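Thread amino acids onto this structure.
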């Protein structure tokens, strides 16, 4: 009997009401399951919450009952000790005020703890009683404590109080039992309240358990009536339909999946019955259309192969020909094995026999591709569906074949892409417009702490971002992406443990199907290393590599910022230039490593001595600079400078020895000396040079006079350039004579400037300007060429001139072109290298000792001789002689001037001659003015003499006349001798 014909039993009104409500809602099975799950979660959450509150309350109760018990014990001990203090001599020994005082403190502490512990988890009435009991105990305790303290002598009674020791004793005895009873009452009340609270919690938990049990029973009943019974009847009718009886119907109405299944089954039976009737009436039409089927077969988009029971091909369509590459004639009547690759043919017979024995329809589209063999031997991936058919009592198999080469290639490409995405260290995510994550690659999962196979449900893109990055995402990135389809920028991801990872992020919007959700994808690449490298590069770009101080770029930027702050606040800003005195000598004598150590120590002292907010910088070499901000008057800057100078003058230990390094400092003030960074820097530099000119080891504030001096130097430089162009520079020559016979052997070339208005200008007025401006290089080259040319002219004229000496400046010694200049001058003029001497001062050589030594070695290889000028005036003369092998050494004129009256000068001259001869060098004495000096120098062994005694610097014509006169004199003497 069909299910809908079975009599139904009457249902209770409660179940009818539930069914009515259930059917009116028409939820799905998933929604019903979710509802039941939520209800059970709520019941479980309530049960867990009550259990947790019970444990919390039990802990609070244990603390309360413990402290209340202490109150009872303390009240007994207080009464006992107070009684002992006023009792008989036997008991008075037990009176110990310090112990009583401690017990009073302990009682007060326990009472305070009882008051501080919460009673919120007791029942309402019990909370009121407990609060009242504790308040009464607190009120009684104040008087009781005071009386106990007075009775035991711990405290003295106030004159305003009526209590004395005796009355306090009586009060304590009278109240002792009451205090004890109050404490005991509090303990009893706590115990009783706790029992009530536990009882009510038990009731609540039991109620929740009972409710859950009832709900479970209700779910079981409804599940049986609404699920199990309909499905059982549906299975029965399905078996009948399988036997060909499609008359069965199921009377079940519900909006869930079972209702839909029943409705579909009923419809299927009705439809099937109708179709059977229709098929019977259309059988004749189908036979008529058989001829047309061949045409349809040929037009099918898939290949069709009809196979007989013996495995031979009976029919194929055009698409099958195309797929396998065979013409139809080579396939029909041949074995199907022709279309099967060799490696699969051994298993083909078994598969074919099994299928023929139990042939069923095997549809296409399950994603499984098999390989077919083409005529040329290549293989093609195929999807195949098989359908059994019987024609005239013979079994047939209709195989529908689809070429899935493109799909297989696409899937392979997609798999490779997925593999690449999974292997990439970049974070790749797909999410919806509201931020819900749809896909997250392994790199993103590792960052977020999500397992490889863990669901992303409930996860959002926000979890990957820092708060700042979220703001950028919603304010800028997402709007731009939704508008233009793409956004690229830098954000910061946040991983497990709060670790922040800077990334370069790309957002792309993807259009979904019409009316479908909009998806976005993002690719985030970790740029931590790049950011770190950029930060390091920025630090390197703005800080000195050796000392860690700010460099010139950062210093100038901070100076501009300081000026802006000073404009706003009305403060002063001081710019300080600091230069180490004679630092070059440290480098050249102790080595660059020690020099670096000295610079680092100076930087450390600057950092320690100056304020934290002051900017300290190393501008290069031994130059430091400081910005002093927030100054109210110039005196503050002077105080800081003086204190800094004292700190920098303290000895510095280098290579086990203490060295004192002095500094020259220049200071300019904003807005007194200037209102922009460039002006302040220039003026501080000028002030520093002024401090150096004043003797070094000091400081100088910028003044307007320095501008005048700078202007004069600029004028001198401008006129010197014009003088070079106009040919105003001239050479003078001072003779150098042999000490034995006072015969002129050579001369020193001296530069003079014949100014059209000022007349003859000595080198002291313009050489320093030429050095600073760099003009000394072309001037020195011109002097060298002119001196060589003039000397060669004299020598070719037969005049007795053995050599000409030319002074070389410090900048020329640092110029790699010096050797080339010397070689070119000798080559162009024809002067023998042995006839040229280069005079070098100690300071010029030691400023760049390594470069100078290299250059001078190359000059000496040309055959040119080297002369140490102004010997004895430097600081490292011995190392100077050791480092450079000079052909001649010139004693400075200041030692020759007082040679006869100053024993020190005499000793220096004598020692210089001895040292020079020890180094196999000749000695030239400068500044010789008297014959007595000549005799003394001869006695010391001096080889050559130069000074006003013989001649002042002469013009070329005058010096030539001197040489001719000497030549004539020699000829005359020679003739007289003959």
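Threaded sequence (978 positions):
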């Amino acid at each position: 009997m069909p299910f809908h014909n079975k009599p139904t039993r009457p249902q209770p009104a409660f179940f009818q009401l539930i069914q009515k409500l259930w059917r009116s809602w028409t939820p799905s099975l998933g929604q019903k399951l979710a509802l039941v799950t939520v209800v059970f979660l709520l019941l479980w959450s309530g049960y867990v919450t009550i259990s947790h509150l019970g444990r919390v309350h039990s802990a609070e109760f244990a603390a309360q009952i413990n402290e209340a018990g202490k109150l009872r014990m303390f009240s007994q001990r207080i009464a006992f000790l107070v009684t002992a203090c006023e009792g008989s001599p036997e008991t008075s020994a037990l009176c110990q005020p310090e112990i009583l005082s401690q017990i009073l403190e302990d009682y007060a502490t326990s009472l305070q703890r009882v008051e501080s512990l919460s009673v919120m988890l007791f029942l309402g009435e019990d909370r009121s009683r407990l609060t009242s009991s504790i308040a009464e105990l607190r009120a009684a305790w104040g008087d009781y404590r005071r009386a106990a303290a007075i009775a035991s002598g711990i405290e003295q009674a106030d004159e305003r109080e009526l209590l004395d020791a005796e009355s306090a004793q009586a009060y304590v005895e009278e109240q002792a039992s009451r205090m004890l009873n109050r404490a005991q009452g509090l303990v009893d009340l706590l115990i009783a309240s706790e029992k009530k609270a536990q009882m009510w919690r038990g009731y609540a938990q039991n109620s929740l358990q009972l409710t859950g049990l009832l709900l479970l029973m209700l779910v079981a009943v409804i599940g049986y009536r609404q699920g199990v019974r309909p499905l059982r009847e549906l299975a029965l009718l399905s078996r009948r339909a399988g036997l060909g009886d499609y008359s069965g119907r199921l009377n079940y109405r519900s909006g869930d999946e079972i209702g839909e299944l029943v409705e579909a089954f009923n419809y299927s039976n009705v439809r099937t019955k109708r179709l059977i009737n229709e098929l019977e009436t259309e059988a004749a039409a189908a036979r008529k259309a058989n001829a047309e089927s061949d045409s349809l077969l040929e037009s099918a988009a898939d290949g069709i192969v009809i196979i007989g029971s013996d495995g031979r091909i009976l029919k194929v369509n055009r698409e099958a020909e195309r797929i396998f590459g065979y013409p139809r004639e080579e396939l029909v009547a041949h074995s199907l094995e022709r279309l099967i690759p060799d490696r699969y043919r051994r298993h083909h017979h078994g598969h074919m026999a099994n299928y023929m024995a139990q042939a069923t329809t095997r549809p296409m589209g399950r994603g499984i591709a098999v390989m077919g063999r083409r005529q040329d031997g290549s293989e093609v991936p195929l999807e195949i569906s098989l359908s059994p058919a019987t024609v005239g009592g013979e079994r047939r198999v209709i195989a529908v074949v689809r070429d899935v080469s493109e799909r297989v290639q696409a899937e392979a490409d997609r798999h490779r892409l997925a593999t690449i995405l999974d292997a990439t260290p970049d974070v790749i995510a797909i999410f919806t417009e509201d931020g819900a994550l749809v896909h997250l690659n392994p790199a993103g999962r590792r960052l977020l702490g999500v397992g490889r196979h863990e669901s992303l449900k409930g996860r959002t893109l926000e979890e990957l971002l820092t708060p700042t990055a979220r703001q950028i995402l919603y304010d800028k990135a997402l709007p731009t992406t939704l508008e233009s389809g793409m956004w690229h920028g830098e954000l910061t991801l946040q991983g497990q443990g709060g670790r922040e990872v800077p990334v370069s992020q790309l957002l792309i919007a993807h259009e979904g199907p019409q009316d479908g959700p909009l998806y976005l994808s993002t690719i985030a690449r970790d740029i931590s290393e790049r950011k770190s490298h950029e930060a390091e590069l920025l630090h390197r770009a703005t800080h000195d590599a050796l000392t860690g101080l700010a460099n010139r770029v950062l210093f100038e930027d901070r100076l501009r910022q300081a000026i802006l702050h000073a404009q706003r606040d009305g403060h002063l800003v001081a710019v300080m230039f600091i230069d180490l005195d004679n630092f070059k000598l440290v480098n050249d004598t102790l080595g660059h490593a020690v020099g670096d150590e000295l610079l680092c120590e100076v930087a450390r002292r600057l950092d320690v001595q100056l304020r934290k907010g002051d900017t300290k910088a190393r501008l290069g070499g031994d130059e430091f600079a400081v910005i002093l901000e927030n100054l109210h008057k110039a005196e503050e800057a002077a105080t800081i400078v003086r204190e800094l100078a004292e700190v920098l003058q303290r000895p510095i230990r280098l290579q086990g020895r203490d060295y004192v390094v002095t500094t020259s400092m220049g200071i300019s003030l904003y807005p007194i000396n200037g209102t922009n960074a460039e002006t302040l820097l220039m003026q501080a530099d000028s002030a520093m040079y002024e401090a150096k000119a004043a003797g070094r080891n000091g400081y100088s504030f910028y003044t307007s006079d320095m501008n005048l001096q700078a202007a004069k130097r600029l004028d001198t430089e401008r006129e010197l350039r014009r003088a070079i162009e106009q040919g105003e520079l001239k050479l003078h020559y001072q003779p150098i004579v042999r000490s034995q016979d006072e015969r002129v052997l050579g001369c020193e070339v001296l530069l003079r400037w014949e100014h059209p208005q000022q007349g003859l200008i000595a080198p002291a007025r313009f050489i320093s300007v030429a050095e600073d401006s760099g003009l000394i290089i072309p001037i020195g080259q011109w002097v060298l060429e002119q001196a060589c040319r003039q000397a060669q002219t004299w020598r070719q004229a037969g005049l007795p001139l053995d050599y000409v000496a030319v002074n070389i400046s410090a900048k020329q010694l640092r110029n790699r072109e010096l050797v080339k200049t010397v070689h070119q001058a000798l080559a162009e003029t024809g002067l023998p290298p042995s006839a040229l001497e280069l005079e070098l001062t100690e300071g010029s050589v030691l400023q760049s000792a390594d470069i100078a030594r290299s250059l001078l070695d190359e000059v000496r290889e040309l055959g040119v001789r080297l002369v140490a000028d102004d010997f004895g005036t430097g600081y490292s003369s011995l190392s100077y002689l050791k480092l450079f092998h000079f052909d001649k050494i010139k004693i400075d004129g200041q030692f020759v001037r007082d040679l006869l009256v100053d024993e020190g000068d005499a000793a220096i001259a004598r020692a210089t001659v001895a040292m020079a001869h020890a180094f196999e060098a000749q000695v030239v004495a400068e500044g010789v003015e008297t014959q007595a000096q000549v005799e003394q120098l001869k006695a010391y062994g001096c080889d050559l003499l130069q000074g006003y005694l013989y001649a002042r610097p002469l013009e070329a014509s005058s010096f030539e006349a001197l040489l001719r006169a000497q030549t004539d004199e020699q000829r005359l003497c020679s003739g007289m001798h003959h």
